[in-house]
Amino acid sequence: MNRRTELGTGSGHITVLLEGRGSFAEVPRLCAGRRVLVVASEGALRRVPVAAWPAADVVTFISFQPNPTLAQAVEAAMLCQASGADLVVGLGGGSALDVAKAGRVLPGDVAAAEEIIAGRRPATADGRQLLLVPTTAGTGSEVTQFATLYRGHRKVSLDTPVARTDFAVVDPALTETCPPGLTWTCALDTLAHAVESLWSIRSTAESREQATAALRLLVPVLLHADDLPDPAERDQLSRAATLAGRAIDITRTTAAHAMSYPLTARLGIPHGLACALNLLWLAPLVEGAKAEQVIDARGHEAVQDAVGTLHDLFRTADGTDLATVLRTVLDRRAPRPYTSVRYDTSLDLLVREGMSSDRMSGTPVRIERSQARAGLETVLRGDSREGVRHTCATTG
After folding, report:
1. Average pLDDT for consecutive 10-residue bins of the chain (396 residues)?
2. DSSP strand E in 189-333: where?
3. Element (H or E) spanning 196, and its range?
4. What span, in angstroms and rounded, lies between the C-alpha atoms of 33 and 53?
5. Domain named Fe-containing alcohol dehydrogenase-like C-terminal: which ranges (predicted)?
6. Cα(257)–Cα(359) distance, rounded to whole angstroms?
7. pTM > 0.85: yes or no
């Protein structure tokens, strides 16, 4: 069944969210008569006949990579302005959606865009609307006000209410071409979003409700689906991704995401897997934190309440700790073959870059540099003494 929801924010912006199988049929209608810039991968454009949409004009932008750079987003912005587009469509995974967001609101100049990223200059959409259509189930970018970009090996974030979409169309049928590796890596990103949002120091009643609802849908699929989810399970993954996206739009992420960025940028570990690997060492620190280690202003009880909710959702009534059940998930879903990562990058560099991320600030417990280093060393080298045997070979 299709759902239409209007998502409001404190700024007064309304996002129209269309969800469910068949909802993609609304996209051509939303583009009718418009001058459209479509930001999409070549693969997405082969699957979707954008040239047949009843738009006044359609221009496409494909010159970006997974984990897109700020320079690529500025290139999209230049094309957006040159084409006179009054509607920008992001079609694809999180990278396409993030470039579409940034291309709509950034100026066509890197120095000026840097000013906006740094918060020294306001972003503006100049009357252009935005339509986001995810073809993967994971990032939740269709309902957040931020876009992840990279400058060299360092992650930067465009974070502004102006980056919110006007329309989001989430049709699970579009995810059915995703192979197992991509499907589960994206699902692990949803897992990290929901878990981190639930224990974040910025969590609210609303964000906890959304994160909990996401995990209720997600966990059974992660634990029990076949190598590829069936259509009903893909429906659950898409819905969970959007709910978790709405949760992190309120709270932002925490240390698992902060420490993931150098693992992706420098070692090529897929983003969702990098986040999940960090949960393996982070979860025991949050779960076992003493009152004096908690930095959430609401105190130790708030952290334990979040941990208790996670135990309920993962059904660990037998006393299983969170790290053990997370390892079970990775054993089933992380890309094969499982090997220890071989890397030349200094652990200290990875730790320094990860801990410098502003996403560390949402973590509910104090994380010492030595703890982060030991955690990364465990997951990257596959230390079996900690029960973490499975990691991922780097990709280019």
Report:
1. 86 92 96 97 91 94 96 97 97 97 96 94 94 98 97 93 97 96 96 98 98 98 96 98 98 98 91 95 97 97 97 86 93 63 76 96 97 91 43 29
2. none
3. helix 180-199
4. 9
5. 186-279
6. 7
7. yes
